[in-house]
Write a structure and sequence with these properties.
Helix 14 packs antiparallel against helix 15 and helix 16 runs antiparallel to helix 17. The N terminus is likely disordered. This protein has an eight-stranded parallel sheet. It has a two-stranded antiparallel sheet with strand order 9-10. With about 525 residues, it is an alpha/beta fold. The chain is built from 17 helices and twelve strands.
Length: about 525
């Protein structure tokens, strides 16, 4: 009897031991919450500068979504001590920066500063103080990597300053879209002798070593090193690359696995706002699909982190020049709707991070409509129709895939009418952004229709009164849209900036009106 009792006890013990493992095996396929050590979000402050309180409120909500890392592209909003020339009119004070970082610390979120160090440096090179560093006199998007001593002096200072106010483990050095590599005579000579990879790597190695000297790890966007990987092994082994992919095939820029074999760590980066998004159309489905497809891929590719980007602009600028291409003024070429309207894409990102299965887009949207806005089934369908609509831009008087502007207007008019009819029972302000976006798109289509008639072969001076009358209505509608835009985004962006955004958005309409008025 005793032996049987012992055998029974062993059997029970084995069952109890195996059951948790069996349960874990059954459930691990449904949820996976520890894939990425870095669950990040990127805030682009090149334009659409958020107020200090809006930043705090926004990051508090990000914390609730499980975000633990924030990449801050401060650009001209950072108050450099020794390079105050760089700071713009919306720059924060050092006290505001430190207060924000402390707030993030309290939430368990580390704040990683992003300091562009090769391309996308118009905000630096527009100032005569830094003219020596230009790769090209007129295209000031990139500095010359052959100006080694001046670059070391500048970036050692900038990075040390950022390190004073940020206690994160990392500094992001940018390094993306450096399309002018080998452009100037000095760089061209080096490329001919050693190649573009060496030109890029020598410069990025210099700034990466400056970061390491500060006790931090350097992060670099991966597109250029993937395109020109020959000298990649010369970069410090601490370097982390971020593979940004906004809906393209995997390995879009080059062979990721090849750099991983060299020992480099990779993070991934999808987007909730990117080209060709603008005020008048957001590629909602493109961004949902980006999350659905790229996040599972990032798991399989052994990426150690994810950072969701949210671009306020394309980073391409138009300039008003003086003699010698001195910059008198510069303005961004494309604006997106402010980030206040994109909570649903942030929520879907958080959901996709926690769930092993690829994002079920339609199920997520319908569930969000029900839980977030209290929508019934019929209204959830209207929300889904809004997000799944094609936001194709109008080019040369027509939509390339969707037919004439009139046809596009007719189709989208039904979607706009449907979303406008929905009355959410909660989070009304958030839903108001969707309604405004729909109205902004119709406003855009109305204007583009008039513009197309003006540019048609059949346009004659006798058509002027009719087009002016139509533009009068568009401008009248714009005043209402401007007011709603300010009401919905007040406190999120600065008041002066809201006025500027409205003025930029209606500028093409006013420009056409003035031209037509001269024909009367």
């Amino acid at each position: 009897m005793r032996s049987k009792h012992i055998l029974y006890s062993i059997a029970v013990w084995l069952v109890l031991l195996v059951m948790p493992l069996h349960f874990q095996a059954q459930t691990s396929g449904n949820k996976r919450t520890d894939d990425f050590a870095i669950k990040g979000f990127h805030i682009d402050l090149r334009i659409q500068v958020m107020t200090p309180q809006a930043l705090k409120d926004f990051v508090t909500e990000l914390s609730g979504f499980g975000i633990n890392t924030l990449v801050m592209e401060w650009e001209g909003t950072y108050p450099f001590k020794n390079h105050a020339t760089i700071s713009n009119k919306y720059s924060y004070t050092r006290e505001e920066i430190k207060d924000f970082v402390a707030h993030c610390d309290s939430l368990g979120i580390q704040v990683v500063p992003l300091q562009q160090s090769l391309g996308h440096v118009e905000y630096i090179l527009r100032n005569p103080r830094y003219s020596l560093l230009k790769e090209d006199r007129k295209d000031i998007s990139q500095l010359c990597p052959m100006q080694v001593e001046a670059n070391i002096e500048l970036f050692s200072d900038l990075l040390a300053d950022l390190s004073e106010t940020h206690n994160s483990d990392y500094i992001h050095l940018g390094g993306d879209e450096t399309y002018l590599l080998g452009h100037c005579s000095f760089c061209k000579k080096k490329v001919e002798e050693e190649g573009k990879s060496k030109l890029f790597v020598d410069h990025m190695k210099m700034v990466a070593e400056a970061v390491i000297a500060l006790g931090k790890k350097p992060i670099i966007w991966a597109d250029i090193i993937l395109k020109y990987p020959e000298a990649a092994a010369e970069l410090p082994e601490e370097t982390i690359f971020i593979d940004w992919n906004y809906g393209w095939k995997t390995n879009h820029f080059g062979d990721v696995a090849g750099l991983q074999e060299l020992g480099f760590t990779f993070w991934g980066s999808p987007a909730i706002r990117s080209h060709p998004d603008n005020w008048y159309g957001t590629g909602w489905m493109a961004h949902f699909k980006n999350q659905r497809d790229f996040i599972p891929y990032a798991r399989e590719a052994n990426y150690k982190g994810l950072v969701m980007t949210s671009w306020s602009t394309s980073g391409v600028y138009g300039f008003t020049w003086d003699v010698g291409y001195d910059v008198m003024d510069m303005v961004q070429m494309r604006n997106t709707y402010p980030m206040a309207g994109f909570r649903i894409l942030i929520a879907s990102y958080a959901h996709a991070l926690k769930t092993d299965e690829p994002l079920d887009i339609e199920a997520f949207v319908r569930d969000y409509g029900k839980k977030r806005f209290g929508l019934n089934r019929a209204d959830s369908q209207k929300l889904w129709d809004f997000f799944s609509a094609n936001p194709e831009p109008i080019t040369n008087g027509k939509a390339s895939k969707s037919g004439s502007i009139e046809e596009v207007k007719e189709r989208y008019g039904k979607i706009r009418e449907a979303i406008s009819s929905v009355t959410p029972s909660k989070n009304i302000r958030e839903f108001g952004h969707f309604k405004l976006m729909a109205d902004l798109r119709m406003h855009y289509l109305d204007f583009k229709n008039i513009e197309a008639r003006y540019n048609s072969k059949g346009f004659s001076v006798v058509d002027t009164p009719e087009l002016l009358k139509a533009l009068d209505q568009v401008l009248k509608d714009a005043k209402d849209l401007d007011k709603r835009f300010i009401d919905l985004n007040k406190g999120f962006l600065y008041d002066a900036e809201l006025q500027e955004q409205n003025a930029l958005r209606v500028e093409p309409v006013k420009g056409l009106y003035d031209r037509l008025a001269k024909l009367k």
